[in-house]
Design goal:
The N and C termini lie far apart (48 Å). The chain has 3 helices and no strands. It is mainly α and 91 residues long. Helix 1 runs antiparallel to helix 2 and helix 2 runs antiparallel to helix 3.
């Protein structure tokens, strides 16, 4: 069972790194990967679940912030909101 969860997380990372048209989807896939890996680790290790909550709270906080920033960027740069020819923003 943990191997299956780890494999699902790995597939999500592969899909996220190959995603070029939807940056928010790529971010959500990377965030989901953390949840699958935490679930896989919870089957194999003996630890306090508070540690998992601390870890996943950081993932949720950083992912929520990233999603908010990507939404702001999408509203400002509608024509250039993909990862095909993205070279960054320098002002």
């Amino acid at each position: 069972m943990p191997g299956l969860f780890g494999f699902l997380g790995l597939m999500m990372v592969f899909k996220a790194f190959s995603e070029r048209n939807h940056p928010r989807l790529a971010l959500m896939l990377v965030m989901a990967n953390h949840f699958w890996i935490a679930l896989a680790v919870s089957f194999n290790e003996t630890f306090d679940y508070k540690q998992t909550l601390i870890y996943l709270s950081g993932v949720v906080l950083a992912g929520g912030t990233g999603y908010w920033i990507l939404n702001r960027l999408r509203k400002k740069e509608k024509d250039h909101f993909d990862l095909n020819q993205y070279y960054g923003h320098v002002y």
